């Protein structure tokens, strides 16, 4: 029952996520959660996957790949049982599990206790930029588990390990598109093991290299255990290599290091970069390769920053610890300071290792999840009213069933959730489905740039639900559109000659 640092860290992270970060509301600041939930409920209800778009009128009936269908089913089942409180609990527990695995990875690698404690803060600050009720949080758990598996692998795989790798990869493949890391991580380990023997005079590691290659090949084969077969891989490859599309998706853009709260993220990235260099100094080529890859990807896309913090920081801890321990030619006083620091961390780790902490950590997490049922928290759980058309939804409900409602993608996911997918939307967050051409036209419309009227008319929209600060609100009013509802978040407008049908 005595908690170790990993268990304490998991509980502390869950408390921070829920009650300091405000996860019961902030987890829902991305409306994609809405269509994920409704997709999952639809799959549970029909017993089959959707193959055409069920949510929009702009691309109704077009082919759609529900590539995260297993996450959707999990979210839908939890939502049916516990509502949005359950969805918040699900992803809060995913965060806690990830933090527990992060500390365990530090110990697997031989990282210093004190350095791990110091790096936990920038790790959490980096990860929380993508603390959202979306499937990628579940993928972080799989990535950490895959890295730990490679770190702990001693040689060729046993039959049980082969089955475990295949099963875990198959589940991961149907949960999130990051399943390619199940192949990439052991492949990097195999390459690093081979290069180490090529560069340095070290004991033979051929058995481990074969074990890593076995893992990569089994994971690659198991990734085809999905409803779409090889088409899933092709779809994801086209999506991730479509520069015209990704250039129009905010989370794939570089992080703005000038915003408030960027200092911990800058620290995490800097430590990750330093760790990659130190890893080569201690002959850990695989650490350097994976850290360097994640650091480079993080500079290009903010979406990769949490993955970098989760994986590269433990590598940096272990590499820095080993470099400090083996550093030569230092002045006696400096050597004494370093030895004192490292030895103190070692003694703390010895004390910490005597505790298991799993039961205490689980009990602490369960208690925090139970607090989500408090009336005051329940009232605030869900999509934030200052970001989504929560008030305007009552007026939207009064529109004709066949109304063609223009709304931005941020509102689209919420509307899908609010109206259970029955009111078709113009646009939502499935950027891979809508494509670069659609996003380009949408950008021209919402910015009221020259030629927007022709594009707007081509969709035959009869109503518009827009953020109050949208330039399109004034442009539509100038063309005779009538305001049906306006609050502090959204404005609902009706085209001239449309049927108001009792809307306020």
Could you provide a short overview of the structure?
By secondary structure, this protein is mainly alpha-helical. It has helices at 5-20, 23-26, 32-46, 69-109, 113-127, 136-152, 159-175, 181-199, 206-222, 230-240, 243-246, 262-281, 285-300, 305-326, 332-353, 358-370, 375-378, 393-397, 409-418, 431-446, 452-458, 471-478, and strands at 405-406, 463-467, 482-486, 490-494.
Structural summary, described in words:
Helices cover 63% and strands 3% of the residues. The protein has 504 residues and is mainly alpha-helical. The protein has 2 domains: 5-369, no CATH class; 393-494, no CATH class. α1 packs across α4 and α5 packs antiparallel against α14. The longest helix has 41 residues, at 69-109. The model has no long low-confidence stretch (mean pLDDT 94).
Topology, element by element:
Elements: H1 5-20, H2 23-26, H3 32-46, H4 69-109, H5 113-127, H6 136-152, H7 159-175, H8 181-199, H9 206-222, H10 230-240, H11 243-246, H12 262-281, H13 285-300, H14 305-326, H15 332-353, H16 358-370, H17 375-378, H18 393-397, E1 405-406, H19 409-418, H20 431-446, H21 452-458, E2 463-467, H22 471-478, E3 482-486, E4 490-494
Parallel strand pairs: 1-2
Antiparallel strand pairs: 2-4, 3-4
Helix pairs in contact: 1-4, 1-16, 3-4, 3-19, 4-5, 4-6, 4-14, 5-12, 5-14, 6-8, 6-14, 7-9, 8-9, 8-13, 12-13, 12-14, 13-14, 20-21
């Amino acid at each position: 029952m005595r908690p170790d640092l990993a268990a304490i860290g998991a509980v502390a992270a869950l408390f921070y996520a829920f009650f300091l970060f405000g996860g019961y509301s902030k987890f829902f600041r991305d409306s994609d959660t809405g269509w994920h939930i409704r997709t999952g409920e639809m799959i549970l209800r029909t017993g089959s996957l959707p193959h055409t778009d069920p949510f929009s009128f702009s691309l109704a009936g077009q082919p759609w790949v529900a590539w995260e269908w297993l996450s959707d089913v999990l979210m839908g089942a939890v939502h049916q049982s516990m509502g949005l409180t359950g969805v918040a609990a699900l992803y809060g527990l995913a965060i806690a599990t990830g933090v527990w695995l992060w500390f365990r990875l530090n110990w697997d690698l031989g990282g210093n206790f004190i350095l791990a404690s110091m790096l936990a803060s920038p790790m959490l600050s980096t990860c929380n930029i993508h603390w959202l009720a979306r499937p990628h949080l579940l993928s972080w758990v799989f990535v950490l588990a895959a890295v730990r598996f490679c770190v702990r692998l001693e040689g060729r795989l046993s039959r049980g390990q082969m089955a475990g790798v295949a099963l875990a990869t198959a589940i991961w493949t149907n949960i999130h598109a990051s399943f390619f890391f199940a192949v990439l991580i052991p492949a990097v380990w195999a390459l690093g093991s081979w290069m180490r023997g090529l560069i340095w005079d070290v004991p033979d590691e051929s058995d481990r290299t074969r074990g890593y290659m076995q893992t990569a090949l089994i994971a690659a084969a198991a990734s085809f255990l999905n409803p779409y077969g090889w088409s899933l891989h092709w779809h994801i490859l086209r999506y991730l290599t479509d520069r015209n599309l990704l250039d129009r998706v905010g989370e794939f853009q570089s992080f703005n290091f000038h915003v408030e709260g960027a200092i911990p993220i800058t620290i995490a990235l800097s430590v990750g970069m330093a760790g990659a260099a130190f890893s080569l100094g201690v002959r850990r080529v695989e650490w350097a390769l994976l850290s360097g890859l994640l650091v480079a990807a993080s500079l290009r896309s903010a979406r990769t920053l949490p993955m970098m913090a989760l994986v590269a920081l433990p590598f940096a801890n272990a590499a820095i610890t080993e470099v400090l321990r083996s550093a030569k030619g230092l002045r006696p006083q400096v050597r004494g300071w370093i030895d004192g620091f490292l030895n103190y961390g070692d003694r703390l780790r010895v004390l910490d290792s005597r505790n298991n902490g799993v039961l205490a950590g689980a009990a602490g997490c369960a208690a925090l999840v139970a607090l989500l049922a408090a009336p005051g928290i329940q009232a605030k759980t869900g999509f934030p009213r200052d970001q989504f058309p929560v008030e305007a939804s009552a007026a939207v409900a009064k529109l004709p069933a066949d109304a063609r409602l223009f709304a931005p993608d941020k509102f689209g996911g919420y509307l899908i959730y609010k109206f259970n997918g029955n009111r078709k939307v113009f646009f939502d967050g499935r950027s891979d489905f809508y494509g670069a051409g659609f996003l380009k036209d949408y950008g021209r419309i919402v910015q009221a740039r020259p030629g927007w009227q022709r594009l707007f008319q081509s969709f035959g929209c009869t109503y518009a639900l827009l953020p109050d600060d949208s330039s399109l609100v004034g442009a539509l009013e100038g063309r005779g559109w009538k305001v049906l509802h306006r609050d502090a978040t959204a404005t609902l407008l009706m085209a001239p000659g449309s049927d108001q049908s009792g809307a306020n």
